[in-house]
Amino acid sequence: AYCKGHGLIPDPEMALDLKTWGTLATISGKETITNERAIILIANAHFFALSLCATLCPLPFGDPLFYDPSEQKYSEGYGYLPAMKLGLTEEAEIIN
After folding, report:
1. What's the rounded Cα separation, in Å, for the pair 18 and 4?
2. Dist CA 10 CA 88 (whole Å)
3. CB-CB contact of 35 with 14 (8 Å)
């Protein structure tokens, strides 16, 4: 709605050309989709691909989805207010 309201989608109501786009321009039947729907479809496909990459190939410095109990022991938690230890410590990172 934001892009349509601010004129960021060129010709949002114009149907895609079947000769140019082929079967990508049709969803079902013989009618082709509009430019607006095509842009939304590609944006959703892009974010779906990014979410698949984030799930299947996570970055090494990110938190894992599941913790491996054999890998290392995790602390119980730091409570409401962690101990005030200065420097580069786990407690200082939790406070930040």
Report:
1. 23
2. 51
3. yes
User: Which residues lie below 8 Å from residue 18, measured CB to CB, with a gap of 6+?
Assistant: 25, 26, 32
Residues 43 and 64: their CA atoms lie apart, in Å, by 27
User: Which residue, among 31, 43, 51, 39, has the nearest Cα to 9 in the 3D structure?
Assistant: 39
List, for residues 3-38, the tens digit of each pLDDT value: 777 877 788 788 888 888 777 788 777 788 888 888
Nearest 5°: phi and psi at 26? -110, 140
> pTM score, two decimals?
0.52
**Amino acid identity for residue 82 in this structure:** P
Question: 26 vs 1, 8, 37, 40, 42, CA distance in Å?
Answer: 22, 23, 11, 14, 14
3 touches 9 (CB < 8 A): yes
